[in-house]
UniProtKB/TrEMBL annotation:
One of its GO terms (molecular function) is acyltransferase activity. NCBIfam families: mdcA. It comes from the Bacteria. It comes from Usitatibacter rugosus. The keyword Hydrolase does not apply. It holds the Pfam family Mal_decarbox_Al. It is an enzyme of class 2 (transferase). InterPro entries: MadA, NagB/RpiA_transferase-like. Keywords: Acyltransferase, Transferase. This is Acetyl-S-ACP:malonate ACP transferase.
Length: 547
C-alpha cells in the first residue's frame, strides 16, 4: 500500500469536522469551550497553552482543567512558563502527564511536590530559545492555545504590546497541520494591526474577562537596599566602565533595578553617560524610566510589555519598537536572540557551586531558568567586535592559541545569603539530587561556571575568567562568599594573591566607600518618583500605589 504523505492534514480535517458537527464555527461562544476542546483534542496529544511571563491564556487553561480525565488524558504539555494554578491542575487531575517547560515561578513549590508524587513526568527544563526551537524540530504542538487582545470575525489577531511567545507558538502549530485556538478580549470589526493572519487560526473565543497579565517586572525603588546599591556601584565602576558595556541584557530583580536607578546619578558622576548601557534587550522595566529620560538608555527591544508602561512606551517610539498602530511590538524570540549577541548579561541565582555553576532549581523549589541560560552563555557564533568583548577575550586567552577571540561577559550578581539565611554558595548544587530524583540525563544547571566571567557579591568582585585553574577559580569564589561555610573555608594567602593580581577586588580596591552606598544615589526612591520621571505617562498597577 502506498504511504499517505498527508496524514497530518487528514487528522486536522477529522478534528475540524468533529467541531463543525458539534455546531461550532470559527468564533466559538465561551459557554461552549468544553465542546470545542472535546472535539479537537485526543488523549496523548502534545499541546501548548500560552503561558509566558505576563500574558496568560487563562480562560483556555481553566477550561482544560475541567475536562474529564476519563476522556482526555496523558497530554504532553510543551509550554514556556507554568505560572497559574490551572497550569498544574491538569497534571494533578491526570489530564496531562508529561511536561517540557522553561520556568514555573510561583508554582515552583507545587511543581516540586507533583514531581515527587509522580504526577508530572519532566522531559527537560529548557531555556526559552531551546524550547521554541524544539517546537520546529521534535516538540511541535498538535493543538495550541494562545491569548490576544482582539480578533475580527475572520480570525485575524491583534496581540497588542504583549506579543511575546505568540508568533513561535502559532507558526509551529499552524504550519505542521495543528490547530490554534485563541482567546481574545474583544471581537472587533477591524484589528489595529494583523499580528497573526486568520488562516493560521482555527478558532477564536471571546473570554468572559480580559486575559491575565502579571506585572512581574515592576520593582518598587522603596525596597532597594543599601547592599544592593553597593553591589550596583561595584558593577558600574568595576565592570561596565572598564569594559565600556554599551549593549547588554539585565535580569529583573532588585539587584539589577539598583543598577538602573544609579545610572543617572552615580554612573553620570563617573562620566559614563553616552559610554555604557545605551542599548538593551529587556522588558520595559519601570525602573529604567529615569535612565531613559536622562539620556542614558537609547533603545530597548522587549520580550513582552509591562502593566502600566503602555502609554509611556507608545510615547517613546525612538526608544521602543512600536508598530504603525502606535503600540509596542514585543517578541520573546527576537529579544532572546538580541540578548544573546549583546556584550554582557547580568543575572542572579539561588545557588552557586565552587566552579561557578549556578541553578535556580533547588530541592524544594523548581522554578526553572527562563532565558538566563541563553543570555548567560558565550555566543560562540559571534563575529562582530566591541571593546568589552575584545578585552574579555584577551583576558581569557590561554597559552597555545594564536587566534584572537572575543568573549561575552556574564555577570552573576548575588548576595552571599538568600532568604531565611540560606547560603548562596554551596559545595554541591541541589541540581545533582534533582537529576537523580527526576531521572534526568543532566543536572538542571542554569548557567555553567565556564560561561561566567564575573561574580559580584557585597564582599567584592571575582574576575573568574582571569583565573588560570579551577583551583584558583574556587578560591576566587570563596573569597567573595563572605561568612557562608564556603567563604569561611577560603585560603587567606591565596586570597591575598588573587587580590594583589586584581582577580578579586574589594570595594576599597575600586575606590568605593561603602558608606556612600545610600538610597540618596537612587534617581527614584519610590514608584511615585517613577511616575514623576515619566511625566505622568507611567500608570502603575494599584498594588504599587501607596499615595
Amino acid at each position: 500500500m502506498a504511504r499517505a504523505w498527508n496524514q497530518g492534514e487528514q487528522e486536522r480535517a477529522r478534528r475540524l469536522e468533529r467541531a463543525r458537527a458539534a455546531g461550532l464555527g470559527k468564533v466559538v461562544d465561551a459557554a461552549r469551550i468544553g465542546d470545542l476542546l472535546n472535539a479537537i483534542l485526543v488523549s496523548g496529544d502534545r499541546i501548548c497553552v500560552e503561558g509566558n511571563n505576563q500574558k496568560q491564556a487563562d480562560f483556555l487553561s481553566g477550561a482544560l482543567a475541567k475536562l474529564d480525565p476519563a476522556v482526555i488524558h496523558d497530554l504532553h504539555v510543551v509550554q514556556s512558563t507554568l505560572s497559574l494554578p490551572s497550569h498544574l491542575d491538569i497534571f494533578e487531575r491526570g489530564i496531562a502527564r508529561r511536561l517540557d517547560f522553561c520556568f514555573s515561578g510561583d508554582q515552583g513549590v507545587r511543581m516540586a511536590r507533583l514531581i515527587k508524587e509522580n504526577k508530572v513526568e519532566v522531559g527537560a527544563i529548557h531555556t526559552y530559545l531551546e524550547l521554541y526551537s524544539r517546537y520546529f524540530i521534535d516538540l511541535t504542538p498538535r493543538v495550541s492555545f494562545v491569548a490576544a487582545q482582539s480578533a475580527d470575525r475572520e480570525g485575524n489577531l491583534y496581540t497588542g504590546p504583549n506579543t511575546e511567545d505568540t508568533p513561535a507558538v502559532v507558526e509551529s502549530t499552524a504550519f505542521k497541520q495543528g490547530i490554534v485556538v485563541a482567546q481574545v478580549n474583544e471581537i472587533v470589526e477591524k484589528v489595529p494591526r494583523v499580528d497573526v493572519p486568520a488562516d493560521w487560526v482555527g478558532f477564536v473565543v471571546k473570554a468572559p474577562k480580559p486575559h491575565h497579565l502579571e506585572p512581574i517586572f515592576t520593582r518598587d525603588p522603596a525596597q532597594v537596599t543599601e547592599i544592593q546599591i553597593l553591589m550596583a556601584m561595584m558593577v558600574v565602576k568595576g565592570i561596565y566602565g572598564p569594559y565600556e558595556i554599551a549593549r547588554l541584557n539585565h535580569g529583573i530583580g532588585f539587584d539589577t533595578a539598583a543598577i538602573e536607578l544609579i545610572l543617572p546619578t552615580y554612573a553620570e558622576s563617573l562620566g559614563l553617560k553616552g559610554k555604557i548601557c545605551k542599548f538593551m534587550s529587556v522588558n520595559p522595566c519601570p525602573t529604567l524610566i529615569p535612565a531613559i529620560e536622562s539620556g542614558f538608555v537609547e533603545a530597548i527591544h522587549c520580550a513582552g510589555s509591562e502593566l502600566g508602561m503602555e502609554a509611556y512606551c507608545a510615547a517613546r517610539p525612538d526608544v521602543f519598537f512600536n508598530g504603525p498602530d502606535g503600540t509596542m511590538r514585543s517578541n520573546r524570540v527576537f529579544c532572546q536572540l538580541a540578548g544573546h549577541y549583546t556584550d554582557l548579561f547580568t543575572g542572579s541565582t539561588l545557588q552557586m557551586d565552587l566552579e561557578g555553576n549556578s541553578s535556580t532549581a533547588t530541592l524544594n523549589r523548581v522554578t526553572g531558568f527562563g532565558g538566563a541560560p541563553n543570555f548567560g552563555s558565550e555566543s560562540r557564533g559571534r563575529r562582530h567586535a566591541s571593546p568589552g568583548w575584545l578585552k574579555a577575550g584577551l583576558e581569557s586567552a590561554r597559552h597555545g592559541s594564536t587566534m584572537p577571540r572575543g568573549r561575552k561577559l556574564v555577570v552573576q550578581l548575588v548576595e552571599t545569603f538568600q532568604d531565611k539565611m540560606a547560603p548562596t554558595f554551596v559545595e554541591r548544587l541541589d541540581a545533582w539530587k534533582l537529576q537523580e530524583d527526576f531521572g534526568l540525563s543532566l543536572p538542571p544547571v542554569m548557567v555553567y561556571g565556564d560561561d561566567v566571567t564575573h561574580l559580584v557579591t557585597e564582599e567584592g568582585i571575582a574576575h573568574l575568567h582571569r583565573c588560570e585553574t579551577l583551583a584558583e577559580r574556587e578560591q576566587a569564589i570563596r573569597n567573595v562568599a563572605g561568612y557562608t561555610p564556603v567563604g569561611l573555608a577560603r585560603d587567606r594567602k591565596v586570597g591575598e594573591n588573587l587580590q594583589g593580581r586584581g582577580i578579586v577586588q574589594r570595594p576599597a580596591d575600586l575606590g568605593i566607600d561603602p558608606r556612600m552606598a545610600t538610597r540618596d544615589l537612587l534617581a527614584a526612591r519610590s514608584v511615585k518618583d517613577l511616575v514623576r520621571w515619566s511625566g505622568g505617562l507611567y500608570d502603575p498597577p494599584k498594588r504599587f500605589r501607596n499615595w
